[in-house]
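Researcher: Next sequence.
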Amino acid sequence: MKKKFLRILVWVGIVVACAVVAAMLWQLFFNGSLTVHAQKWLQVFSVVGMFMLPPIICGILWNKERNPFRWLKMDQGAHWSLFLMAIGIMVVALPGINLLAEWNSLLPLPNSLAAAEEGAEATIKAFLQTDHFGGILANLGLMALLPAVAEEMTFRGTLQQIMAKSHEPKVQVHTAIWVTAILFSAIHMQFLGFVPRMLMGAMFGYMFVWTGTLWIPILMHFVNNAIGITLYYILPENSNADTFGAGTTWYIGILSLILTSLGLLIFYRRTHKQ
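Model: Next structure:
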């Protein structure tokens, strides 16, 4: 327990130091500008500084061979069929996630949090505005690929492993998965989607444990982000794709949750046999 606590302190210290450096670099290059272009670069500096560099540094410190990707379990893959199954489960889960988000949105929020939600949504829409294909690819990199890799390196690769590495019973692994999932959802500061994001984080956590590779949750995370961004561009503005599975199509959301649960069970049995 003492070693675990010390590692968390080390990780926090590294995150703070990297965040300060990232903020200084952004201030140096953009002088505090609040244009969309500058805010996109702030996003890059923040994600790399807070979520990508600290896991790499921690991996260098804590791996005997000084190989951070081995510590993060990014030096190994899985059978191609598991990657396909993971993509399928993520796609099937989307209507269920929309249904859970609708239920979550019924919870009342203080005015300050409601204002923060509106501000975050406005920022996302501003980031998505582009009139050329290169801009769409850039947004997929900035808002889908980069967060998927960096956040999984931090939450599943680092925090979950720190909390799960002990000589205590297997229940410790489950505790690590759920605590990490709660932190993963809370860090986004978008509480109208807290519950579905937490459950999605737990799903990523179990996938990480079952497969022993971080690339499976990274792929699922990317697919979730990329589908939302792609639908924004290819569907009409009033299509309400983010409510498919909720509202009048709630039965599709229920079916999605059932099929996702079955898919996870099949995936677990497949990896357990291997």
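Model: The chain has two domains: 1-71, 76-273. The mean pLDDT is 89.
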